[in-house]
TrEMBL record:
It comes from the Bacteria. Gene3D superfamilies: DD-peptidase/beta-lactamase superfamily (3.40.710.10). InterPro entries: AmpC-like, Beta-lactam-related, Beta-lactam/transpept-like. Residues 15-329 form the Beta-lactamase-related domain. Its EC number is 3.-.-.-. This is Serine hydrolase domain-containing protein. It is an enzyme of class 3 (hydrolase). Transmembrane segments: none annotated. One of its GO terms (molecular function) is hydrolase activity. It comes from Amnibacterium endophyticum.
Length: 454
């Protein structure tokens, strides 16, 4: 299936509305976003006055950097994904017959129980304290390799594995082996790097309260990176580029990056989702494989996601504790893919095609009588003609519609029946996503008319 990646920037207005709504509704003091395609970062925006260059802690999105660094060491022959943990670190395993392998830890199958609230508060732990904790004992809840169990502690352990294997502290390792070679200057581990960082917040008695800052330490490998939205989007674009024929580079081979984005450990009760290595892999029912990772931290929320077939993706970063940035990022990618998808609609009713043509004409010059001529009686009851007209005219003016109506094949159409049609109208400053549905009678009439930013 083909996707018009050049159309991605036209969804900027709709995505900006999503993010502005997050701040208006009090989900976070500030929210910032970026859109990526194979051409790079094509659109950014923010709400809450932070500015596009401001960085946020990306929390568990950091796990993708840890997994990439691990695969670099594996590619160099220093370790294997099958290497047992206790061959690298002095660790006492409790509750299982053996230690997990590095690959099992990286794919969330290490048997360590869910530990986010605790692990998220341990970032600054010194390495010697961490080592003593491992020697004292790591308690598992099941045999390694038997079932998915999301463990941030497991990624902290992998960070220590990398330090022991390379002789380099984790923040410096990632900086020297990933950030600097890829030119990701907007990413860092601490305030001392000179990157402007939005302070993290939490709701306390109905007010935003700034949260304490954690300096790098033994748990940084699970969530310590800070990044601007465009910086994290450029990291995501590099990972997404692994699916292109020209993807190889000296930082990490395309095959290793594709391995990160390959299902390894199925997520229980989610038939369409699995964990790869540092990334979540899922199957969208309309668009196919989508790769992502969320981040939640005291003071921050983050989400990055992209579509492997097209390389289109979205990043949303927020400065509120566990804010749920997954929701706006997921909606953003759906908007992007729906507007970029090039798809045949099958056999539409002639009345459906005619209704689409009329809606296109109405968006350029509204005519109540023309709409009444094809509308079913519910349309006016569901929303008054005056409100419908004012909303449509405001949206059309916002995106700057051209005079000419594009052929349906060029309008990213989608349909679930001959009586239904969704399509995009592309303007100079954005795009509209329109949907119509006709009644199931001998002479079909328009029962659904939706026009929104898309």
């Amino acid at each position: 299936m083909a996707y018009r990646t050049d159309r991605a920037a036209l969804s900027a207005a709709a995505i900006d509305d999503l993010v502005q709504e997050r701040v208006r509704e009090g989900k976070a003091p500030a929210s910032s976003w970026a859109v990526l395609t194979p051409a790079g970062v094509v659109a950014t925006g923010d709400a809450g006055g932070v500015g596009p260059a401001t960085a946020f802690r990306v929390a568990s999105c950091t796990k993708s950097f840890t997994a990439a660094a691990l695969l670099q060491v594996v590619e160099a022959g220093g370790l294997s994904l099958e290497t047992p943990l206790d061959e690298v670190l002095r660790v006492r395993v409790l509750g299982a017959s053996r230690a997990p392998t590095l690959g099992e830890l990286a794919s969330m199958a290490g048997g360590i129980p869910v530990d986010d609230p605790w692990a998220d508060r341990q970032e600054s732990m010194p390495a010697d304290v961490f080592d003593a904790m491992l020697e004292d004992g790591v308690r598992l809840v099941r045999e390694p390799g038997t079932r998915y169990e999301y463990s941030s502690f497991g990624y902290a352990i992998l960070g220590r594995v990398l330090e022991v294997a390379t002789g380099t502290p984790y923040p410096r390792l990632v900086t020297e082996r990933l950030l600097e070679p890829l030119g990701l200057t907007e990413l860092a581990f601490d305030r001392s790097a000179g990157v402007p960082i939005a302070p993290g917040h939490a709701r306390v008695d109905g007010e935003w309260a700034e949260q304490p800052w954690a300096t790098p330490g033994a748990f940084s490998a699970l969530g310590g990176i800070v990044a601007s939205p465009s910086g994290l989007a450029r990291w995501a674009a590099w990972l997404a580029s692994a699916w292109r024929p020209d993807a190889d580079d000296a930082v990490l081979p395309a095959a290793a990056r594709r391995l990160m984005q390959t299902p390894v450990t199925p997520v229980p009760d989610a038939d369409d989702r699995a964990y790869g290595y540092g990334l979540v892999v899922e199957e969208d029912p309309r668009h196919g494989r989508v790769v992502s990772h969320s981040g939640g931290y005291p003071g921050y929320g983050a989400h990055m996601r992209w579509h492997t077939a097209s390389g289109i993706g979205a990043v949303v970063l927020e400065n509120a504790r566990y804010s749920g940035a997954t929701l706006p990022a997921t909606r953003a990618l759906s908007l992007l893919l729906d507007s970029a998808r090039a798809e045949e609609t099958g056999d539409l009713w002639p009345e459906t095609v005619a209704a689409r043509d009329l809606v296109e004409a109405l968006l350029r010059s509204w005519d109540d009588d023309a709409l009444d001529a094809i509308a079913s009686d519910n349309l006016g009851l569901d929303e008054t003609a005056d409100r419908r007209r004012r909303a449509a005219e405001a949206l059309a003016q916002r995106v700057g519609l051209p005079a000419a109506i594009a052929p349906l094949a060029d309008a990213a159409p989608w349909s679930d029946s001959p009586a239904h049609l969704v399509w995009s109208v592309f303007g100079e400053r954005g795009a509209l996503r329109c949907e119509i549905r006709l009644t199931p009678v001998a002479s079909p009439r328009l029962q659904t008319l939706v026009v929104r930013l898309g």
